[in-house]
Amino acid sequence: xxxxxxxGNKYLxxxxxxxxxxxTIMIGVIRYLxxxxxxxxxxxxxxxxxxxxxxxRRAGIIISVTSALSWLMADLMLLNSFSNIxxxxxxxxxxxxxxxxxxxxxxxxxxxxxKHKALARTDPLTLVANRRAFFELADxxxxxxxxxxxxxxxxxxxxxxxxxxxxRLGHNIGDRLLRSVAKTIKQNIxxxxxxxxxxxxxxxxxxxxxxxxxxxxxxxxxxxxxLSIMQGNGWSVTFSMGVVTFEIFPDSVDEMIKVADSQxxxxxxxGKNRIKHKVIGRQGNINNPTAPLExxxx
Length: 298
Known about the structure:
By secondary structure, the protein is an alpha+beta fold. It contains 10 helices and 6 strands; from the N terminus they run H-H-H-H-H-H-E-H-H-E-E-H-E-H-E-E.
């Protein structure tokens, strides 16, 4: 718990830079005290790697230069140990080059790892979150809602007649349609809200700290926007939406999605192109599905 608190602190990066700077100076002092016979330059890799990984390439370059200067100062104070005054300068030039190469490698490895993580959490077609990322983020939202007792809402959206568009117009058009849906949703929700493609023609949206009235307005707005875009492109699809507002909270994200999915299928069974909204709380609980308030709208 303490580790999370420290690493979330806004002073972490400045602290790491200062700590690494002091460490490089200390290594230089030890170099001077132990003399030229012990090779301690390997120890500089720790502060260089620490700062490059956690702060960035620029900070890594600064610590690399500081490390080389620290070693150079120690060697200049031990100048009598060298046969030529140029040797310390040549040594530190080559050492600096090595430090900078290591900084570059570490930074590129960190960037590649972050890119890989992002790809693992992103739907490659629509570039929104995938199901896995949605579940991770929704679990965080669920824990936050339990802690602060704030309601939240989930939208489950299915594209009606999407298969017909794929069959009639081809998969390229179907892919364009899915990208258009994702883009439209993303442009019409808040930054703190979460949109994900669950696979096929289904999308999920988590509306953080959003009650029933606001969730209903968002669902209607999205439906109208999406229908307008579809009609403008000549795509004969509509949207069935299941909306659930949680004022008391489910035990898991799976349970949350199951309720929203059920509402979406209920909307499809009633004729498609409609919104089915359930409010869990006030008059009931999640274990009593007949008690929550429900609304049906086109």
